[in-house]
Amino acid sequence: MAWYDEAVFYHIYPLGLSGAPKQNDYGEPVHRLNTLKPWIGHMKKLGFTALYIGPLFQSVGHGYETTDYRLLDSRLGTNDDLKDFVTACHEAGIKVIFDGVFNHTGRDFFAFQDIRANRENSPYRDWYCNVNFWGNNEYNDGFSYDNWGGYNLLAKLNQRNPAVRDYICDVIRFWVSEFDVDGIRLDAADVLDFEFMKALRRTADEVKSDFWLMGEVIHGDYSRWANDNTLHSVTNYALHKALYSGHNDHNYFEIAHTVQRTIGMIPGNIRLYNFVDNHDVERISTKLINKAHYMPVHILLYTLPGIPSVYYGSEFGIEGRKERYSDDSLRPFLDPKEYCKDEENNPCTALIASLGRIHSQWKQDLVYGDYRQLVLTNQQYAFARGSLIVAVNNSDSEAWISVESGSHAGYVGLLSKRVLECSSGRLDISLPGCSGDIFAPVKEEERSSRDQDETSRDTEQSAAISITAAAPQSITEPVKTEETSAGGTVGTRPESGQKNLTPLENTEIPDIPYDQMTVQQLQAVILSRLAQNGPVTDRMRRDVTDNIWHDSLVNWARSF
């Protein structure tokens, strides 16, 4: 398979991340692209293997009103800067795709300027759609033309004109020969001419055997664009919507239905480009009503069929709200010195790093493994990817689910490090509120005794994927269950007659709000609350100490 099938993407809007001015004065180049080089190490550390960056080329404003397809935007630097940047990415093992804005150009583009100067005598008068020299517009050009989105700033190219088609294909060849780019994200692909896209695909196959074309498509049958003749993939806006609304509405049926619908829609060799936010939509941390849902949302992003992508800054949990007349808050400047060490301190960043490692080490399952739904209710959802079992819980309260385990004797939680034993062909899983985990089968020879240092978990911000951790624990107590539509079960906490266990040793519980407590204090609160409700088993205690996610613990504590 090609590199892009196994990729985990990072998405950068360079004009915003570098803090470039909103308007281009076409002055001397300012080498802001070089300030993004520290982000390459950040990407590698968090497990990203590919970068979608753009728009990059000379434009007058936000980057999508192109002035010159062959010249890096002077607010970002020079073509040599872009060459060096792509080379640095490649040296770090990161593929790079550019934004291809081929549906329209800006008014400063040479062909449009020639029409303004020469009108009917311009050799480029057929480069744009429906140029009418009897019309006019707000710029008082003395002619009118088709635009994109109602903005005359964006003049629509006539993609059926062979000269336009040849010009854009030559641009792609130039990008490969000049910058060694690995693919292109096609802006507004859902309004591109299909014959035009076929020409782009032929060019892609010509310039590199694994050159990737991915299109921005919002609605419709994705197989119209993603197939063997046009594009390799498209943006999965259907899943994007389902991931946040399925959590906001406590409705995992929406997500599961979307997954099944897209699987049935596209050919088996196509993998859609999955994301939870980007430069055009609000940040996931803004869209989520319960911020603790960040964890199950991103577990699904990395484990459902498709190619996962994270928009810069969202790995830190930053917010951004879409405004009526500006997308600036979605495309902020970030100082790498301030943010790039957050893996050590920010649970959102730690989660993304852990998911990146899991995706890398279990790609055979998460990329090529089949998808099988195991449990589905409004608030709990479990499915298999190859040999892995993924389980998420959008409820504020703890949930228990039971799934078929096949012939495996046990599973290890790749995020929590819990080792669970199977019983009678089933795996019983406890899920704290607003959480999830990815379970891998454990071989007998890989089991080892559990590290007894409970307090060390408070400082663990990422999960080691190698199976080192936990002693096997038996899940044999009866669980009050109800059958689900997917053949699994969901139930309440198992009953047990085992002795009470005290809260975490030497941990005082201060009289302060839960969201101001430390992880260890929250764990102590939960254990003490569990003890008030009945006997606390070893397994229940481990479920608490394995949970190091502050927001999840806050919601768990509030659930009592």
Brief description of this entry?
The chain is of the alpha/beta class. It is built from 16 helices and 23 strands.
Oligomer designation: single chain
User: What is the CATH third-level topology name of one domain?
Assistant: TIM Barrel
- Uncertain ranges: 448-481, 494-503
What's the shape?
A: elongated
Question: Would you identify the CATH architecture of one domain?
Answer: Alpha-Beta Barrel
* Cα separation of the termini: 49 Å
What is the level 1 CATH name of one domain?
Alpha Beta
Write up this protein.
- This protein has helices at residues 14-17, 38-45, 79-91, 110-118, 162-179, 194-207, 237-248, 252-265, 284-287, 294-303, 336-339, 347-361, 363-366, 519-533, 538-546, 550-558, and strands spanning 9-12, 50-53, 57-59, 66-72, 95-100, 104-105, 147-148, 151-156, 183-186, 212-215, 233-234, 273-275, 307-311, 371-376, 380-385, 388-393, 399-404, 410-413, 419-421, 426-431, 435-441, 481-483, 489-491.
- It has 560 residues and is an alpha/beta fold.
- Among the domains are: 1-7 and 19-33 and 50-102 and 159-234, TIM Barrel (Alpha-Beta Barrel), CATH 3.20.20.80; 104-157, Oligo-1,6-glucosidase, domain 2 (Alpha-Beta Complex), CATH 3.90.400.
- It has an 8-stranded parallel beta sheet with strand order 11-10-9-5-2-1-13-12.
- 29% of the residues lie in helices and 18% in strands.
- Strand 3 and strand 4 (66-72) form a beta hairpin.
- It is elongated and about 90 Å long.
- Helix 5 runs parallel beside helix 6, helix 14 (519-533) packs antiparallel against helix 15 (538-546) and helix 14 (519-533) runs parallel beside helix 16.
